[in-house]
Amino acid sequence: MRKIKEKRSDSLIYHNDLNCFTFKNFKSVDYNLFFTICYYASKNIKSTKNIIPISLSFEQLRDFLPQEKNKKRFYENVVAFAVKLNNLKTSNYFLDNEGYRIYSVSSFFDEITVNEKEENIIFKIKEKWLNLIVNVVKEYTIVDLKTFCKISNKYTKNLYRYLSQWQSTGEFIIPFEKFNILLDIPASYDIEKIEKRIIFPSIKLFKDNNYFKNLEYIKEKDKTKQGRGGQVTTFTFTYDIPEERKEKMLNLGKRWGRKMKSENTNPPPPVKRETVLTFN
């Protein structure tokens, strides 16, 4: 069993495909625990073939969960999370080149154990998912885990992830229905409630903390559809590209002999694939 080494930075780098997962019924603390586990796994697992159990102390978890000081309650939170993970499955649906449907189901973790006396959590991630968090060098999202865990609202937390994914372009465009699925928004929420309870408070928090500079939000409507002023079809979020991302893109361009365009590039079209994390 491998014990986790101390962290070097608070940045979690993972493959963009992890942003295609819908974490059904996750609470804010569940997101914190899941991505904290991914963070430490990414820092300490050197190969996607390494599937030995890894031990993570409660103290290390508290680095990213400072709001929970009570030991007994903290343990109970971790156990409740482990129970969820025990039933956590990934279902993957896509079309092959000939248009035939392919559907598969798999668990994300092989096993997970929480030890109250030793105050640790022992986990083993399934080999097929390690490539999402280990040695990721392209098509990645960079998330500041301290910032992510500090955000209390789970919807704001997820929107933070998606905006972070598109920092290299400064533009996040998503269909209305896909937005609701990825953020696991209740079906009872109409556009007015989504804006009032999720989008507007999230934008305010991002602006107040300067997480995304010059953040703007636009909703597009199909005026031929029913509804006041038409039916909402797409959300667009625009913001400044961080200077460090611009420099990194420029360096990559020089490395591969490419000329980098000065204007933003549009996100690639979505693939015909949907990965969903669900609980049985």
Automatic annotation (TrEMBL):
MF (Gene Ontology): DNA-directed DNA polymerase activity
Comp. bias intervals (Basic and acidic residues): 271-280
Region (Disordered): 259-280
Annotated SUPFAM superfamilies: Winged helix' DNA-binding domain
Domain Initiator Rep protein WH1 residue range list: 13-164
Similarity remark: Belongs to the initiator RepB protein family.
Stated name of the protein: Replication initiation protein
